[in-house]
Write a structure and sequence with these properties.
Number of strands: 9
Structural class: mainly beta
Helix content: 10-25%
Largest sheet: 8 strands, antiparallel, barrel
Order of helices and strands: HEEEEEEEEHE
Shape: elongated
Strand content: over 45%
Length: 195
């Protein structure tokens, strides 16, 4: 009898795990994150300082057959230290970011671990960059593209994510080292699924 009960329990857990991965699902939620950014120029860090910014916004997740697509929309403030002929300072990039992530989830019941990656599109708010000193902020582009990837965990309705974002295109319209700037960023975030 004990073996039958253990077998039924194992079968129940397998069915629960497969349903979590195979059946269509939809989630909507909110998220917030801290990010840690740096500027690079032609593969070199412009300085060694990593600055802290934040993200806040909404996310959705549609999944079936073990995979999911997770579009997000959030307001981001990325900060980065820089060195220039005019002196050292801090640049602040404010943007609306739209990542579209493809991923998979492994887990049983309300607990699951995710792996996700995809493109992220950033649209500068007012097309401006704020600097701590007198640099030409109008020479920065109004949009940029990057790749984002990371791991995450779902615990009931709560989510935790650790991600890395790598800028693909140059941020500045200028030539030289400043013209080749790209932003790189780590972020750690928490979210809540209200649906």
């Amino acid at each position: 009898m004990k073996k039958i009960l253990l077998g039924l329990a194992a079968l129940f857990l397998c069915i629960q795990a497969s349903q979590a991965q195979l059946l269509p699902s939809l989630k909507l939620g909110v998220k917030g994150a801290l990010n840690f950014s740096s500027l690079r120029a032609d593969g070199k860090w412009l300085n060694s300082d990593t600055k802290t910014g934040f993200q806040a916004g909404i996310w959705g997740r549609v999944g079936a057959a073990g995979f999911h697509v997770q579009p997000e929309l959030y307001y981001t403030q990325k900060k980065a230290g820089y060195e220039s002929d005019e002196g050292n300072g801090e640049a602040t990039f404010k943007s609306l970011d739209l990542p579209i992530l493809l991923g998979t989830k492994i887990g049983i019941g309300p607990v699951g671990f995710r792996i996700q990656a995809g493109p992220v599109f950033s649209f500068a708010q007012d097309g401006k960059v704020t600097f701590g000193s007198a640099l030409d902020k109008e020479s920065y582009k109004k949009s940029s593209t990057g790749l984002i990837g990371g791991i995450g965990a779902d615990i009931s309705k709560f989510t935790v994510d650790l991600r890395y974002e790598h800028g693909l295109n140059k941020l500045s319209t200028e030539s030289g080292d400043r013209g080749s700037q790209r932003i790189s960023m780590w972020s750690i975030g928490v979210g809540y699924a209200f649906l």
